């Protein structure tokens, strides 16, 4: 998913050159995914950045066939994208096999993609998976972020809650929403594994969301929220596997140098 506005970053963070050879984070993800066995790349973009994305991909991956999907083609027209569930639905015509979903501006690490590939071997329309991260491996050295806290029982996701104020205090404590949590508590960073048979259920939920929010200029239909609703209705089981990787991502301008340094060895 590479259609976000990057409003807090102040530019097209999906293409921010953080690698030693001008790579963006998505380029490292593509290399890791292909090494794990993924054989097709679908980039969900928006029309206004399409030319820049295509130019970047040709420069970084000259021999790679990429499927481009414009999220805004799904509509209805709006300046702000409709959210991550809408993004996945915009790619329905390009998805013909079990697939993973990632954010273009998040670095997940090679082991995360290997875990995702394993999970997809057992995918079904009513069985999905989430590759979760330890919250302590996802909060920045300074400042707070929003994370999707996961409750897990017997390897199954039972609840997912978007929580503001996730940060590491000067004392080393990790807190989420003002409450101390264990550093190894699982959070979702939007690395999901689905069977294409889930798409009709996603479409149903989008239709309900849009009927209630058609006139809202900033409302977003988010993938974790819809996954939670389908779980609650007994229509989807989500297996959770823990990644040992250190998550790296760009949210604010101050993150750029940190990410660049972290990926300099890749």
Structural write-up:
This protein has helices at 25-35, 50-60, 71-74, 84-90, 110-120, 199-213, 223-232, 255-262; strands at 41-45, 66-70, 99-101, 106-107, 127-134, 145-153, 156-168, 174-176, 179-181, 186-194, 237-243, 248-249. The chain is α+β, with helices and mostly antiparallel strands. It has one domain (13-261): Spore Coat Polysaccharide Biosynthesis Protein SpsA, Chain A. Strand 1, helix 2 and strand 2 (66-70) form a beta-alpha-beta unit. The radius of gyration is 18 Å and the shape is globular. 38% of the residues are buried.
Topology:
Blueprint: H1 25-35, E1 41-45, H2 50-60, E2 66-70, H3 71-74, H4 84-90, E3 99-101, E4 106-107, H5 110-120, E5 127-134, E6 145-153, E7 156-168, E8 174-176, E9 179-181, E10 186-194, H6 199-213, H7 223-232, E11 237-243, E12 248-249, H8 255-262
Parallel strand pairs: 1-2, 5-11
Antiparallel strand pairs: 3-10, 4-12, 5-10, 6-7, 6-10, 7-8, 8-9
Helix pairs in contact: 1-5
